[in-house]
Amino acid sequence: MTRDGAAEAVASGQISELFPPSAVGDADGRLSVAGCDLIELAQRFGTPAYIVDEQALTDRAHEYRTTLAAAWSGPTDVMFASKSFPCTPVYRTFAAAGIGCDVASCGELAMALRGGFDPSRILVHGNAKSAEDVRTALDVGVRWVVIDNLCDIDRLEQFAAQRQGVLLRVIPGIDAPTHDAISTGGHDSKFGLSLAEAEVAIARLRRSTYLRLDGIHVHIGSQILETPPFAAAVNAVSTLGEFEVYDLGGGLGARYTYDEHPPSVADYIGELTRAASTSLPTGSTVLVEPGRSLVARAGCTIYEVQTIKRPASPEGHTLVGVNGGMGDNLEVSLYGTRFEATMAARSLGAGTVGERCRLVGHHCESGDCLIDSVRLDSPGVGDIVAMPTTGAYCYTMANNYNASRRPPVVFVRDGDARVVVRRETIDDLMARDV
Ligand SMILES: Cc1ncc(COP(=O)(O)O)c(C=O)c1O
């Protein structure tokens, strides 16, 4: 593509479709998000850094809320699947946006409470909940504990001192088309009970003194790019009888690359609620639990180029080494997630202009590759690379491999930027050593 053609690509929004909706490039393709220039953010806060468009989080929560409320005739709620971005500023943003949240440990529960969620808006998951997880959930008085297995019933009955609402997680027997590690609805899933076992659990819960079975939970996996499996899951759980509440899980995919086209929130909710209207009781409460599709696009990561290695043969890739990698983004190594990236100063024609590069991290293994093949426009040492769609599960799984310090989270809004999670320090790395 020529430079002029590339300018059209930016104008038509190709790169900004992956970055937060507020992202724009100037005439040279220099990128800013929510009015904040990415290169200036790199100078001010250092790299790598997670840059998050705060308003994009709120807007997406509202999109989910209003779409679901309009599509279903009974009560509805949206629960932020908080494993996708668990830090108190994000909990605070979603609590203020009026949605609920799910947590999967007493640690996430503590953060959700600190972030301002009322216990009545929280539900608790876990396929191997500890006594501490269960006790904390009961003490706090969360809205629902999700029963994943019969041991959960034993443990909840052991500790409950008053009535506790529960949902029952069911395996619908649906292998969603996604990476095996994030597929959770197949017959051999470690999460939930088969339909046959669920009948046993339902009978037990109906006899329980302290546990009140309010409904059914189903979640078939993550990064799912088509809608029919969601409808199939609804139909599968409808065979268990009638309940007041149906939590239909999360799982809608995010758009990571130019060639991926996930269903919209409206398409996804439309499919779910059409299935619900034919197979679930009218007037029942329908919940959804999005994580990835709620937060992925709001975030991007900025890195600084440290090294460039030119290929020995013309077919080879230029290796562009940055000061991050699998320490701040495990999605690539764990699930083979494909990302895009661009030079923050030169995003015109991103994806089509520039030399073919392999974007590699600084960790001590060959698997530490952020993007196997991406066109970057004239990358040079010291330049800033911006990688879109890193709002989901990147912060979550950030780690200290090679004693790298986990990056800060910087919220941007209306031209202002503020650190909401600071960068780790060398002292932090040793703070737990005794
Ligand atoms: C029980 C449950 N609900 C919701 C989610 C959120 O899924 P996603 O981030 O794909 O929307 C997950 C994550 O896999 C989950 O395990």
Q: Layout of helices and strands, plus pairs?
A:
Layout: H1 3-11, E1 24-25, E2 31-33, E3 36-37, H2 38-45, E4 49-53, H3 54-71, E5 76-81, H4 88-96, E6 100-103, H5 106-114, E7 122-124, H6 131-140, E8 144-147, H7 150-159, E9 164-169, H8 195-207, E10 211-217, H9 228-237, E11 245-247, H10 265-279, E12 285-288, H11 292-295, E13 299-309, E14 318-322, H12 331-335, E15 342-343, E16 355-360, E17 369-376, E18 384-388, E19 409-413, E20 416-421, H13 426-430
Helix pairs in contact: 3-4, 3-10, 6-7, 9-10
The structure holds pyridoxal-5'-phosphate.
Can you summarize this structure?
The protein is of the alpha/beta class and 434 residues long. The chain has 13 helices and 20 strands.
Q: Could you please describe the fold and organization of this structure?
A:
The chain has 434 residues and is of the alpha/beta class. The protein folds into two domains: 3-53 and 298-429, Lyase, Ornithine Decarboxylase, Chain A, domain 1; 72-295, TIM Barrel (Alpha-Beta Barrel). The protein has 13 helices and 20 strands. Strands 4, 13, 14, 15, 16, 17, 18, 19 and 20 form a nine-stranded mixed β-sheet that branches. It is globular and about 70 Å long. The protein binds pyridoxal-5'-phosphate. Pyridoxal-5'-phosphate (PLP) is lined by residues 81, 83-84, 102, 125, 219, 222, 249-252, 289-293. Residues 81, 83-84, 102, 125, 219, 222, 249-252, 289-293 line the site of pyridoxal-5'-phosphate.
